[in-house]
Amino acid sequence: MSIKSRRSLKNILNLVSEAGMLKRVPRSGWSVLGIKNAESVADHSFRCAVIGYALAHLENVAPYKVLLMTIFNDLHEARITDLHKMAQRYIDADMVEDKSYFEQISVLPKGMKSELSGARKEYKRQATKESIIARDADILECLIQAKEYLEQGFSGAVKFTKKAPRFLKTQSARKLWSLAKNMNLEDWWFGLSGFKR
Fold first, then answer.
1. In order of start, what are the domains of the chain with their CATH numbers?
2. Is 110 helix (H, G, I), strand (E, B) or coil?
3. Choosing a second label site near 120 at 20 to 30 A (CA), which of 38, 76, 111, 137?
4. What is the pLDDT of residues 65-109, one digit of tens each?
5. SS3 40
6. Cα separation of 94 and 177, whole Å?
7. How far apart are CA 115 and CA 160, in angstroms?
8. Contact, 55 vs 136, CB < 8 A?
């Protein structure tokens, strides 16, 4: 194995390790509402990717780019944490997020760096169907999480369910949210377990 190959592998492994930090970074907006043990950024990113995959199929778009954008969208939070809206009033959040993200990927092999850089720029421009779906997946995941927190008794989460739906752009995301807000999101579990609600 050449030194260049070893360096590339070490840089990839460092990114994998850094991505693991997201399992320990709480989503700060929920903490502000007083929710102890709120979901982590990794929790959010995983379900966001699942939603993005489903939305891509519902909207007849190949899912690869959507998955790439949803999985890596919050990678920068391993370095700067999840900054809630109040914190973002005092800093240039876009600049800080981009600086940390592009520094994270700067040492990756050329093909990976190029692909991840392109995905980030595409997501931020919101000019392609894939980027719009990825953003809708992010919003829809937050809405579903808010609904789950509401069902667990955290009444402050209702504010998010009232404001965020207007930002959904795809018909599929709007329909999924319409269905989700009017059903108990744990029914699937109770049904499989043989319990009646």
1. 3-193 (1.10.3210.10)
2. helix
3. 38
4. 999 999 999 999 999 999 988 888 999 999 999 999 999 999 999
5. strand
6. 27
7. 33
8. yes
